Structures are given as C-alpha cells and as structure tokens.
Amino acid sequence: MHPPLPIPTGNPLPLPGPWPWYADPEAHLFPHTGPSSTQNYWLYPTYSAAYEEQTFFDAFSSPDLISWTKHPTVLNITQIPWSTNRAAWAPSVARRPIKKSKSASQAGDKSSSSADTDNPPPEEAPEGEYEYYMYFSTGDGTGIGVARSTTNSPAGPFADALGRPLVNGTVMGAEAIDAQVFVDYPAPNQNSGGSEWDSEEGAGTPRVWLYFGGWGHAVVVEVDAESMTALKGQFVEITPPEYVEGPWVLKRNGVYYFMYSVGGWGDNSYGVSYVTGPSPTGPFTSTPTKILQGNDKIGTSTGHHSVLTIGEEYYIVYHRRYPNDTARDHRVVCIDRMEFDAQGNILPVNITLEGVEARPL
Length: 361
Hints:
Arabinanase/levansucrase/invertase, Glycosyl_Hydrlase_43_Enz, Tachylectin-2, Chain A, mainly beta
C-alpha cells in the first residue's frame, strides 16, 4: 500500500462564501483558544469591495489550512463613533496573556500587611487564557483604531477600546493605514512572525511595536504592552526604498526582516520586497530584495502579505488576482511556502495554484 498523497490547500484558499473577494490577509497561529476549540489557524482580511461597502471585518479559522470556518462581522465599524463608516482596511490582531489578581486566600501568608492583601500582585492566567486586540484602519486614512475581543477569543466580536483613534491621521507623511502589530522578545534567538504572544519560559518580557503607513511612508511606534491600547515613545519613520504600503516585520535568528508591498496595488507591478536590520526600528539595509511577484499564467498583483511562522517553517499569505481579471476589487487570498537560504536571505517565492500541504494541528 502506498501512503496517501498529501492534500494541498489549493490557491486561492477555499474560504467560505458567498463573497469570494478578500485582500490584505493577516494570518496567525493562535495555539490556545480554549479547551473545546480545534480551529487554531486564523485569517483576518479586508473585505474587498467598494469603499462604502467596507464597513466590517470577517475572520476565518481552520484546524488544517484547508477546512475554513467563517466568523462574520467580528468588528462592525458603523458602531464606532469616530469612524467614517467606510474603507475598513487591513486588520492586525495581537494577544496577550490575561493577568488576574490572587485572592487573599491564594496569597497564603496570613501575616501579610493589609496593603499587600488589598493589592495582590498579578499572576499569569492559566495557559490558553488571552485577551485579543484588533488594530484596524478606517476612512481611507482617518485613523488606526484598537478594538478588544469581548469574549477573550480570536473569534471576537471586537469592540472599540478607546472611543478615539490610537493613531489619528497622517504621521510623518504616512497615511494611517495597514497596521501590523509585532511582538518582540529580548532573547536574540527568539523567532517571531507577528503577534503570537508566546509565554515560553526564558523568553523574557516582550515589547510590542506598531508598524503602519501608506502614501509611500512607513512609521513604527511602540505600544504599551500592559494596556495594548496606548502608545509609548516617539513615532519613527523607517521608510525603505520603493516602499508603498503593507508593512510586515518578522524576527529570525536575531535579524529583523522588514517586508513591504511595492508597485501599484491595481496592476501586476505589485509585489513584496524586504530589507533587514538589527532592531525593530532599524537601521535597515538600503538595498531591498524583491521576493514576491505575479505570474501572468497563475496570478497577478501579488502583495499585501503576512507570514505564518510555525517553528522553523514559514508560509507567506497574500492576495492576488486571477489572470486577465482587471476588476478593481477582485482579489483572493493565497498561501505559498517561504524559504531562507543558508545565509538567511529570503528566497524568491514560487507562487502556485496548488498552495501548500494541509497541516493539521
């Protein structure tokens, strides 16, 4: 008997309908979503439609990258007073462990002072208990907001956490769109592909960074890791050559890879390049390398990506268009392998119709 052939995901990914068009996908592996959950891969895309119809975000989850469940309207921007009720774009989801206070009975030492028992130190909640935050842009650059899951689940629903934008309007020439939240650990070899707050022993306390920017400018600012709803420090412009939009940062072996979209999002010049640096704010190398571009026979206008990191394996998740389909909003979500050479360079991505092999969790 021959072993069964691996099952491919196919490209585009078979996301449940009825609407087939999504763009700007952010992919995550959230391993701990509650004792009864088996759907651990998550996608948070833009609903690709006319700006006036982009008033919400859908999410998708899967246990294997093939069978997807749709979670409709995980955030409705028409319920946010400061929103302009249009152009909801490119959400980024991050999580942090829930902190709870020890009760007096848990404190143990009955000789503790009243001040100690009235203000017990926080402790980490049991594994799998997290708060989830969504960072999103609305109004074609009006601002970047932050919403919190009301269920402590990546499925939401999410509700506006501030009553105002976290980033209000243009900063250093950067349109306030295309947020990415990157969780960085101090340990030099702690790899991180995005927002997966990993409580691995010895990893240390992470710092949280918000990258964003359209109109050819990229900006980064630190996020307060305790609240996840406030900024700290100064905005820093980090615009690399040919930058257009769609920043994505990952860390591998102590090197920070700043990836971003180049070209025009409506045509086949759209692609992804990267530069590298020694820290979340650079300085980054001055010569970019292009690693994702379209193929007239397979798919065009490949860009606005994220990277799904699973151990030492990497998957690039991005949108593209069907060949010869020129409709502005006809964009679909795809996944392919992303690999590094021995020197740590990202190799050019081979875009496919097959996608990647199923990966059950």
